[in-house]
Amino acid sequence: MHDFSVSRSHSRARGWGIPVPDDPSQVVYVWWDALGNCVTSLGYGTDDTAYDQWWTTSERRVHLVGKGVVRFHAVYWPAMLLSAGLPLPTDILVHDYVTVDGRKISKSGGGNHRRPGRAGRDPWHGRGFRRRTG
Length: 134
Fold this sequence. Notes:
- Helices cover 34% and strands 19% of the residues.
- It is α+β, with helices and mostly antiparallel strands and 134 residues long.
- The longest helix has 15 residues, at 70-84.
- Mean pLDDT is 79; it is low at 117-134.
């Protein structure tokens, strides 16, 4: 892969994205910025030692992603990392959609999601691991 487009039509992106200068029909799609958060949240580009601890010198760099975003995490993200000379993920684990009452939980699907409770998102993580391990 030599190049790929980071923009989408405004209508296809449902209005989500950064407007492309001089082309109101296009937006830079949100995944472009979101993928960078995988390393910037660890302090990439700063003096924070977390980036080195969890990314550069770590034996494993595991991505746990939903099946709907595999292309972004298994194709585009490694291409971005290669172009920057940064280490690639060592593992990409893909899970099925999380559902409630047989319906996919989704922010983009019309708000078909339930709040896990006052404790934030941790109950979802705990429930998922408990179901898989016990």
